[in-house]
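INTERNAL AUDIT FORM
Audit reference: QA-55
Scope: verify that the stored structure record matches its stored sequence.
Auditor: D.O.
Record contents follow.
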Amino acid sequence: MAIDEESPLVAEERPPQPLNHRRDVYLLCWAFLLIFLAYGAVQNLESTMNSEGDMGTISLGILYVSFAIFSLVASLVVKKMGSKNALILGTTGYWLFIAANLKPSWYTMVPASLYLGFAASIIWVGQGTYLTSTATSHANDHNLHEGTVIGKFNGEFWAMFACHQLVGNLVTLALLRDEEGGTTSGTTLLLIVFLISMTLGTILMCFLSKRNSKEEKLEGSVDTFSSSVGSSLTSMLNLLLDMRILLVIPLMAYSGLQQAFVWAEYTKEIVNPVLGEQGVGGAMAIYGVFDAISSLAAGRFTSGLSSITMIVSGGMLIQLIVLLWLLLNYSAATGLLGTILPLLIGALWGIGDGVLNTQLSALLGILFKHDLEGAFAQLKLWQSASIAVVFFISTSISFQAMLVIMLVGLCLSMAGFLYLTLNVEKAFAGAGAGRAS
């Protein structure tokens, strides 16, 4: 019987149809953009919007501790629920966190942060599972190379996702620019707009087709689930016996440190004193633009371990120059120069962040094909833990001390990364060539 490809009923009943694959990728892209343009902008404002008692910064620290803990079991939760359901449930944590900022207090922010840690862990595992399943189905339907399709779909997703900093912070700039210091009425309007945006993103998630990958067919009792938790934790611990993961962990941790540095320190210590709270949105929009451009360029030039080494080294060199500049020679200026310098710093830091985001994923994909789930679980664990550390210690140490910590972290991570790529992986590749001959 002929299939009417234009019938929405048939498309829903037969998700493997090619039109559905593209449709689902676009729905996922737009849903994440609508959700994270709101969350990302609010996160950038937390250290200044809820500065009393450092409530904003501490709440983010609690959030990322929760994120790190739940990352240990998030993949199993997604398997039980299915990736589509996990994506929808994950959005509720972001919605609740934004809502808590309407009435910020320790009694609203702490529970919301704890729950968002759980929601973030499952939405990101769900995103990876769903996108990979969609790409695999598309490749099978069209007899395409699976890795090529996965790379293409991921490229489209991350290109769209990178725009959230630009869009979200332009909205912030537009709504707060006429408010002196971000008045209560201006901030309330901003949060309501963001809640509407998040609601639209959640609605889009509901229109995603269900995917019937192996990961979504986990059946069994509580005992089966408990044993799976134990197996997952054992797998992650076993991976720590691999010298390669030990050498790349400092780079994972630094990638979290440098992200948290922007959210907790750059906005508070560099942007706010010169441009005010209303200028945070514009500065982070510039950061987002250069982050997106850097991500696209770095992804296009990635071809193997040697290219990853060169790209990462270039991105880290840029961040090293920025850190040394801030530590040794930076001072807030006035006039046009005072406006340009914070924006320039944001642009340079965005380039480094884009490099790390794309190249870490590529590096793990090349080195740990035998255990991708465990490798990416390690990435989320160490990123979240280091982000939490920055939010907690930034309230009790000086900006200069934080810069020193960042410099030490950058140097240690680069030393481990270069040793890995220039020595350990060379031996690993040689052994692989010997087995092939």
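Auditor finding: record pair retrieved intact. The chain is about 85% helix and 0% strand.
Action required: none
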